[in-house]
Each structure stands twice: as C-alpha cells, then as structure tokens.
Amino acid sequence: MKSGGSLSIWFFIGISLAVNGAIILARGIYELVSPPEHQVVLYQLHANVWWGAVLLILGLFFSLRFSPARMARNS
Amino acid sequence: MNPALLVPSTSTLVHLSPVDLVIIIFYFVLVLAIGLHLKGQANTGEDFFMAGREMTAWVAGLAFLSANLGSLELMGWAGNAYKYGILAAHWYWIGAIPAMLFLALVMMPFYHICKTHSVPGYLKLRFGPGSQALASISFAFMTVLMSGINMYAMAVVMRVVLGWDIHFSIWVSSITVAAYVALGGLRSAIFNEVLQFFLIWAGALLIPILGLVEAGGWTGLKAQILQNLTEQHAPNPGAYTHLWSTLGDFGNNPMGINWVGIVFGLGAVISMGYWTTDFLVVQRVLAAKDLRSAKLAPIIGAAFKMMVPFIVILPGLLGLALLRDPHTGNLLKLVPGDLAWSDAGRAQGLHSFDEVLPLMLARYCGPGLLGLGITALIAGFMSGMAGNVSAFATVWTYDIYGAMINKHASDDSKVRMGRWCTLLGVAVSIGTAYLVMNAQSIMDYVQALFSFFIAPLFGTVILGMLWKRATAAGGFWGLLAGTLSSVGMYAWVKVDPGAVRYVALSSQAQDQAQNMFRALWCWLICVAVTVVVSLVTKPKPDAELADLVYGLTPIPHEESVSFVRRPVFWAVIVGVVFVVLQIIFW
Q1: Which of A33, B97, B171, B249 has its CA 20 to 30 A from that of B580?
Q2: Which of A37, A48, A50, A57 would best serve as a mutation to test chain B binding (most B beta carbons within 10 A)?
Q3: A52: which chain B residues are within 8 Å (Cβ-Cβ)?
Q4: What structural domains does chain B harbor?
Q5: Which residues in chain B are closer than 8 Å to A43, comparing Cβ atoms?
Q6: From residue B44, how far is each of A37, B50, B136, B423 by CA, in Å?
Q7: What residue in B sits closest to A5 (Cα-Cα)?
C-alpha cells in the first residue's frame, strides 16, 4: 500500500525498526561481553538483546515486503 | 517562571549515552526524509489538506489514534494512574471506545458522503456560515494555543528528565514539525504519525513486560499496591485496582467522582465530543480512500486504543508497587509537579507524578533501549503537534480564509496559504510556549477554554446529522448557549468553590468530576436550546439537506462485501472485548 507516495509508509517503518533494532541488539551483545558497571533492574534478562532482535526481524520483514523493487514488480 | 526552568542541567533523571543519541538523531533524520520524499505529492488542495483522500483504513486508523497519543498524554496519564489508580483507564476505555465506534458506524457516512474538508465545513453545509464561523475561529485559535502549551510542557519535561535546554527542545522539535508538514501537508503528517505509532510501542512496551515480571504478574502487582498503600495509610487502597466497584459514591475513590460522571459526563459527552467532532483527529479519517475505509479506520483506532493502557496505565500502577528510593530503600512517594520542582522539592529529591514513566524507563532500560524510549516520548510530542498544525492550517484556509476573507481563492492560493499557515501555526505555538513560560496561570485558562467548546459542538453536530428539523438558527444559538453556559459554570466555581455541589452534584467532587458534570450540563443546554429554537424557526427544505442528514442521505449498502470485511463485524468484536475488559477489572 503506497497511499500516494512512491515509497510505502511501511517501508519507512521497516527501515526505522530495523536500524533501531540493530543498534540495540549490537549494544546488548556488547554488554554480554563486557557487562556495564551500573546495571538496570532485571539486567540478567538481557532485554536489549531479545528486544533488539525482535525489532530487527520485524523491521527486516517490513523493509523487504514493501521494498521499492518488490513494489515495482507487483505494480 | 516555572521552578523546573531553574533546575540545574546536571540534576537529571536519566543520562543518555552516545548510542541513545544516535537513535534520537536517526529519528529526526527519518521524519525529515519522509517530508522531503512527499514534497512532490502535495500540489493541490486535496493533496495538501486531505492527503488526496487515498489513505487505507490501516494508515488512517493508526494516524487517527497517533494524533491523540502525544507524549504529555503518555506521561500525564501514567502520572494519573499513579495518582488515581486504574480509574485512569476509564479515559482509554469508556472515554474513547464507544465514541470511536459511534463515529465509525453512525457519523462517518455523513462526513464522508458530503465531502467536507473539516468539521466546521460540515456545520456550514448543515447550519450555515454563523455556526461555521463560531466553530472554526474557536477551533483554530484554541488548537495552536494548546499546541504551544503542550510544547512548553514537553520542553519542561525534557529539562527535568534529560537536562536539555528548554529553548533547544522548543526550537528543534518545532522546526522539524514545521518542515515536514509544510513540505508534505497532511500526507506527511499522517505518514509520520504512523511511524511514530510504531516507535511509541517499540519504545514503551518493554516497561509493562519487565514490570510485570518483577512484580510477579497482575496478582502480585495488586498485592504489592495494596500493601504499599496500606503502609502509607491511603484511604480505601483497594480502589486503586478496581475500575467500577468504587464508583457508587464520590468519597469511595481517589478521583472523587461517581459512575454518573464517568458514564454520562465522560463516556456520553466529553469523549463523544472529542472523538467525533475535534477536527484534529477527525481529519485523519476524512483522508480515507472510500467509505468502507473511513468506517474501518476508527474501529482499527479503537482496537489499538484499548491496548494503550498497557503502556500508559500499567507503568503508573507499577510505579505505585515497585518504585523505591535507591538510597534508603523506602517507598518512593511521587508528588504534584509544582512541589517536586520547587527548590525545597529538588533539595529533597522529590519527583512529580508525571515523572513516573521516565522513572520506570530508567529502571529497566539501559543504553540503546533508553534512547528508543526517549525517542518514543519525542515522537509522541511531535505527532501531537503535527496534528495540531495540520488541522489548524486546514480550518484556517477553508473555513476562515476561504469562507470569510477570500471566497474566490484558487486552489493554488489555498495550498500556498496552507503552507504559510503551517509555519504561522508553529510560530504562534512557539509564542504561546514562551508566554506560558512567563505566566503559568495562562496554561490553566487556555486548557479550560478548550474544554468549553467540545461538548456543545458535539450537541450541535449530532442534532444536525440525526434530526432534519434542526434549523440554522437552532444550531447557532444552541452552540453559543452551550459554550457560554460552560464558561459560566467554570467561572461560578472559580468565584465560589462551594458552587461545586450544584455543578457536580456533590461537595466532595474533585476537578475531574467537575469537568465531567460541566460538560454534561452544557451539552444538555446546547441540545435544549437547539431543539426549542429549531421548533420556532423555519427548517430547510429536504432537498437542501440531502447527503447531510439521517433519512435524507443514501448510505451505500455493503451486501457485496463478505461478512468479515464489514465494519460492523469488527465494531462488534471491539465492543465485546471492551465489555470483557470492564468485567475483568470491575
């Protein structure tokens, strides 16, 4: 669904989630290797690792599903 | 000047790392990129002001919700949940869902079929230019003033939470919003609102998930709240986790309200007024591509609105249960903002109710996640502001400039006017923010002023849609009488606080209860005056009311659409879930 634009809004959302997810996941992995001095509550659950991964996967799905190339092929 | 402005920048709630800053900067770059990308698709009036009327139900529905999901809404209602308990969820459930479904199934066909550009535009078609002028002028000015107040309040929060300079927050966020709305018009505002919707959920959803893990689930959370409030000798601590069972009497609950105020004041009048006639939100649905999408959009919005308490109300309740002073281990007691931000409050390390969401964010979110959470708050603020300025630009251009100043304005000149109005709206908002910075009492009066128009406007619009006998004179005088009666009741209670026992039916009624009952009375006055004046004045012929009034508007049938694709099917599903939620949290 383009709703008038040449790029779909869902593509932008995918990019946003994927980039944020990748940054958060990378930071989470870094903290696994080098635990921070000041830890947040429930640090042991490593929320940044799994939440970053969830956002990254969701973002990649939207980015690929609504990529300009794929949309051009379907239109 | 607000004491929060005097807080030294080193005394902040959270500290951002470089990773957090990268996430925040990426957000600003992305919203500007969207504005630039859409610049070429806002050349006509329909494109700039109505997004070409080609939004799908999902895009229109999420933007409809997101325009209302400002950061002050998020932080303010999380603070109210800390203050009043789960009663605050009424503003998301009975205070929204029935109205959204009503908009979808009853009112949307009239808005869509008459092809109006705005709610005041509908009033012009139905009641004539008098009602249009009253509604458009009040809406336009109140919208930009409210936008300025929200901007100021957001900048104060950024100062307290992050230590950001208040001028930096005001100017950076305003210029960004002005740029992407002026470039791409409503389409750009809507696209960014949908993006912001996802960011808000991505940034805020972890708090309730981790909070429930820490509290031991809903049962553990309730037990902890009961224990903490009992320790603090709070009256009727059980009322903080029950939605309806304590609303039999004003004195039984922390909000000082009863079920009549919630059901009739909030559910039947205020929420109906806001969700069905406030052009800020209705404009998003008017941009839908067809009637089925226009009806589905508010239903999709309602489905997600029902879930918002999970990221707003639950963090407030979790704050009641879990927040402790990191140094003493004692329960952390949040206080009103003016006390927390006073010199004495800061010296004691006090925090305000509105800081509960950032406090919970800082509790669970380390670098990266913290940046996403702060981005969610900034995104919320910017989506609310973009909603305000795009609605202002439309109402000013069509209902004030096009209707009163230059009746023969070409489409090109309207688009130019819309772009300038976007910048003007942002400039007035900035001016209001600086005005409030130096005179706090203005904030209370402007917020009250905004509330004066919502309830009577709903009375006028709903009678206009459902009763063909309503006349132009009836609509105008009803709207005026309802608005003036609301102002009168507000002033009466200000001058004589004892008058609250007449306005809100109880001397124990608190602020929220007064607002509910004032709205109820002024709506009734609006309806009564409209009916009486209409009955003694000459109605329009039926032919002139075609496509505007129930019974004279052919509503397209949906027999060709399968049952599960019909709006009414999904409205019933949302309605059932709404009722189940009331029973679960009774």
Answers
A1: B249
A2: A48
A3: 368
A4: 3-445 (1.20.1730.10)
A5: 366
A6: 57, 10, 22, 18
A7: B38
Q: Is the alpha carbon torsion for B454, B460, B465, B466 positive or negative?
A: positive
pTM, two decimal places:
0.88
Distance, in Å, from the CA atom of A72 to the CA atom of B315, rounded to the nearest integer, reads: 43
Distance from CA of A75 to the nearest CA of B (A): 17
Whole-angstrom Cα distance, residue B324 to residue B334?
10
Q: Which two tokens stand for residue B516?
A: 């509910």
Query: Does position B542 have pLDDT exceeding 70, yes or no?
Result: yes
Q: Is the dihedral of CA B213, B215, B216, B219 positive or negative?
A: negative
Domain ranges of chain A: 45-75
Say what the pLDDT of residue B9 is: 45
Residue A53 token pair: 């991964």
* pLDDT, tens digit, 9 for 90 and up, residues B203-245: 999 999 999 999 999 999 999 999 998 888 888 888 899 999 9
Judged against a pLDDT cut of 80, whether residue B425 lies above it is answered with yes
Record: contact A55-B202, CB cut-off 8 A:
yes
The b-or-e profile of A17-50 (16+ CB within 10 A means b, else e) is bbbbbbbbbbbbeebeeeeeeeebbbeebebbbe
| Phi and psi angles of residue B404, each rounded to the nearest 5 degrees, phi first | -120, -30
Query: Quick one: which of B423, B464, B438 has its CA closest to B549?
Result: B464
